[in-house]
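Hi Y.,

Following your request, here is the sequence exactly as I used it, all 135 residues.
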Amino acid sequence: MSRAKKIDTSFLGVALAWLAVLAWLFLITPENRDGGFGWTVPMVQQGWMAWVVPTALFFHIIAGLLLVFSYLGLRFPETPSRGILGIETTRGDRLFISLLGSAWINLAWLGLIGAQQWMALIVCLIFAAAVFRWV
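Below is the corresponding structure, written out as tokens. Let me know if you'd prefer a different format.
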């Protein structure tokens, strides 16, 4: 079995486990008072942190991104490239810059505009596309 096949098989197993955890997350989501999907109902009652579905999804998506970028790094190695910042960056560096910039964009949006946080997601996606294209 070639190295690429081993990597593909290993990451397929990890991806299936990741999807299983995602399905489990939605299965354990509590219901709201009306019996519907409890998007903002705490998942752990009397817990030290407000673990609601969006918070859990955020960390789950970050874990998924790390899995995808690990796979890409092993399967398709790259050489660092130099962008408009003048520093050499790899895919992982650009992901980190995108995530860090998105955090600042969301904080600024929350402080300056407040509501409509989903529109900040659109700004963050545009920012991430620009980082991966030009940085």
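The mean pLDDT is 87.

Thanks again,
Q.
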